[in-house]
Amino acid sequence: MHFFSTFVASSVLAAAAVSAAPVILDDAGVLNFACLLEDLENSFYKLCTTKFNARDYTDAGFPGSTFEQFLLINDHENTHLQTLRSTIQSVFGNNKLNRECREGCTYKFPVNSAKDCVTIAGILEGVGTSAYDGAIRFVDNDDLKNAGAAIATVEGRHTSFLNILNKRFPIPDAFDTPLSARTIFTLAAGFVDKCNIDLKIEAFPSLSVDKADNLKVDDVVRAKFNQNLNNNQLNNLRCTFVFGLAQKSVRPDRTPSKNGNDVEVECKIPSDVAKFGEFVLFIADSDKTISVADDSPVVAGPALLGQERITVELVR
Question: Cis (ω within 30 of 0) for the bond into 170?
Answer without folding.
Answer: no
